[in-house]
Amino acid sequence: MHRRALLASSLALIPAAGCGETASAILPQRPTTGLDPARLAAAMAAAEQLPRLHNVIVARDGQALAEQVFRGPGLDTPVNIKSASKSVLAALGGIAIGQGVFEGVDQPISAFLGDRFPAAPDPRLSQVTIGHLLSMQAGLGSTSGPNYGAWVSSRDWVRAALARPFEAEPGGRMVYSTGTSHLLSAALTRASGRSTLALARDGLGEPLDIEVPSWPADPQGIYFGGNEMRLSPRALLKFGELYRNDGLHAGVRVLPENWVRDSWNGRGTSRWSGNPYGYGWWLRSAGRHEVRFAWGYGGQMVFVVPDLRLTVVMISDPSPVEQRDGHVDRLHALLDEGFIPAAETGSGQA
Question: What's the rounded Cα separation, in Å, for the pair 2 and 52?
Answer without folding.
Answer: 19
